[in-house]
């Protein structure tokens, strides 16, 4: 790769503000994301975490400021290199994990996709589980959501509250899994209210407060 990869930069957010009507959800946020690192985004309810993630995903446009992703000034043009997992899992309860993924893999026509069974294996799930998703534990549902994101071989993973409603052991397993993806040189951004759960993979911790960057500090990753 040339250009941005050689500088090790995955994304650059410069002076980004996002207004909803007259309300500023983000105010002059600037941050740079290096390739292959994990960023943990924390802050109270309404701090702007999901808004920043959705802007990085190209799902929202900033009102002011710029976002550069993989060296491109229009995140929409590199959307296929980004995997976004929202905190409402977009999966069908009446289908099995593999049926869900087969359905979603058809939404990427003409593109190479990871085999659904392999995606499930990568997140530690048996692809041949006969149960419908409605009978999965929360941890298994979150893993299936992550497998769905992996279908398109994303280089940047944007995960909104990946540990929500998970027990501590399932969250620990999810963190180990994410650590493997990071070692595979994917860049990861996680929003969470449970900073301690993500600490083992946090290369950097970005705290937002009322839409502003309150702090941006290196973490102490152990994985
Ligand atoms: N589409 C929208 N229209 C209007 N206001 C919005 C919209 N999206 C977000 N907001 C507001 O912007 C602020 C930031 O929301 P955001 O979801 O980014 O916060 P958050 O830090 O992710 O919060 P939480 O931890 O509760 O998910 C909130 O006050 C929210 O109500």
Could you characterize the architecture of this molecule?
This protein has helices spanning 4-7, 49-56, 97-105, 116-122, 138-150, 168-183, 195-198, and strands at residues 9-20, 23-34, 38-42, 64-69, 82-85, 156-160, 187-191, 204-209, 212-218. The strands form two sheets. The chain has a six-stranded mixed beta sheet with strand order 5-6-7-3-8-9, with helices on both faces. A three-stranded antiparallel beta sheet has the order 2-1-4. The protein is built from seven helices and nine strands. It is of the alpha/beta class. Helix content is 27%, strand content 28%. It has a single domain (4-218), classed as P-loop containing nucleotide triphosphate hydrolases (Rossmann fold, 3-Layer(aba) Sandwich). Helix 3 runs parallel beside helix 5 and helix 4 packs across helix 5 (138-150). Bound molecules: adenosine-5'-triphosphate. Adenosine-5'-triphosphate binds at residues 20, 23, 25, 43, 45-51. Keywords: ATP-binding, Nucleotide-binding, Transport.
The low-pLDDT segments are 1-6
Main beta-sheet strand count, sense and barrel state? 6 strands, mixed
Q: How many helices? A: 7
Going by CATH, the homologous superfamily would be P-loop containing nucleotide triphosphate hydrolases
Question: Percent of residues in helical segments?
Answer: 25-40%
| Overall CATH class | Alpha Beta
Radius of gyration: 17 Å
Small-molecule binders here are: adenosine-5'-triphosphate
Using DSSP, what is the number of strands? 9
**Mean pLDDT, as a whole number?**
91
Q: Mind telling me which CATH architecture this is?
A: 3-Layer(aba) Sandwich
